[in-house]
Amino acid sequence: MSNLVPEGWRVKTVGELSNVKRGASPRPIKDPKWWGGDVGWVRISDVTSSRKYLRKTTQYLSNEGVRKSVQIAKGEVVLSICATIGRPIIINVDACVHDGFVWFHDLDCSIDREFWYYFLSSKESFLASQRQSGTQGNLNTSIVSDLLCLLPPLPEQQKIAAILTSVDEVIEKTQAQIDKLKDLKTAMMQELLTNGVGTKQGTGDGESYIPHTEFKDSPVGRIPKSWEVLPLSKVAKLERGRFSHRPRNDPAFYNGDIPFLQTGDIPKESPYITKFSQTLNEKGLRVSKLFPAGTLVITIAATIGEIGILEFDSSFPDSLVGIKVNPIKADSMYVLYVMRYLKGELDLLAPQTAQKNINLDILNPFVIPVPPLFEQIQISKSLEAIDGRLNILNLKLSKIQNTKKALMQDLLTGKVRVKLD
What we know:
Elements: E1 10-13, H1 14-17, E2 19-22, E3 35-42, H2 44-48, E4 53-54, E5 59-61, H3 63-67, E6 70-72, E7 77-82, E8 84-91, E9 95-97, E10 101-105, H4 113-122, H5 124-129, H6 141-145, E11 148-151, H7 154-195, E12 199-201, E13 208-210, E14 215-216, E15 223-224, E16 228-231, E17 236-240, E18 254-260, E19 272-273, E20 278-280, H8 282-286, E21 296-301, E22 303-310, E23 320-325, H9 332-341, H10 343-348, H11 360-363, E24 367-370, H12 373-413
Parallel strand pairs: 3-9, 4-8, 19-22
Antiparallel strand pairs: 1-11, 2-10, 3-5, 6-9, 7-8, 7-10, 12-13, 14-15, 16-24, 17-23, 18-20, 21-22, 21-23
Helix pairs in contact: 7-12
């Protein structure tokens, strides 16, 4: 072990560096006397919707509620141990934690809290793998207490934390740009898919658009008077995927060269389907069906209405539907955007069963607004431009996150030593 410990560093368990304790909850939890004060009550959802610092909560405790919970000093770190396992966060508000969190009582005074946050962050995957059986799964204080920590001297802790913080700041700024663009896209979809771009005037470089002035009520809301409202079956051919052999998991049909999509391969943000989870061989293709690149693919089971456009020929099971748009009637990318815009409406049509699903009897008559083709294309181009910018930012974010991951591995193990001023 000594050969693995950088010079000047110590190896300690978390339990040796602190007294790991669980939070607490007032009971019965629905009693109104516990609520309505000024001290936040940290929920797992507050942590998962935050990043490094917890700056707000969705619920607040009364003075009586605070006495029945555990109040955490600002600047201290807590760790989630149920539902989302192993997620640390620095408390930056007046707050209490319930028993779905642990906190670190009497944490060694030689430990920088920001370094402690990054150390715990580096253990999140490991801790998640240690979840105990149960409806949600959870950790106990012993598992957390037994974590080994490579602990550098305080000045080195602070320098490591400062380097990782600077990377987090870039991540934060990039994410803010992404969030701003997403908000812009949402607003543009609302505007373009209800008001359109207008009537085309002129051609070529002199082409312009005069905003629509006449509108009508329709089954999809208020739209320009010149637009139609048509069922999907009038602008496209819809066909369910197929895999007509049981059992479906027979390995004799897989591991070939033919992409075979699953529901999770359909993107939630990017318009394009760029990955696939499985492949079929020629035997698998004989019991399936190949859909060409350019086909729209929409989910109809469990998750309803996620849609993307194929960048490659692919097969898929009957939990997905292929939509082959008639180019005379509609623009494929426009249909994709309008289906995303109306996703909530489609979801409402799903029978309320244990697992939601829809079928072609629901999809074929599902109505969408259909502008003239030239206007569909202009709407698509405007939204694609934003998606292109989002794609660039998401790639940048992924690269920075990978850089951070590599830095954490190097810096928190002492593989790369920081230079102190």
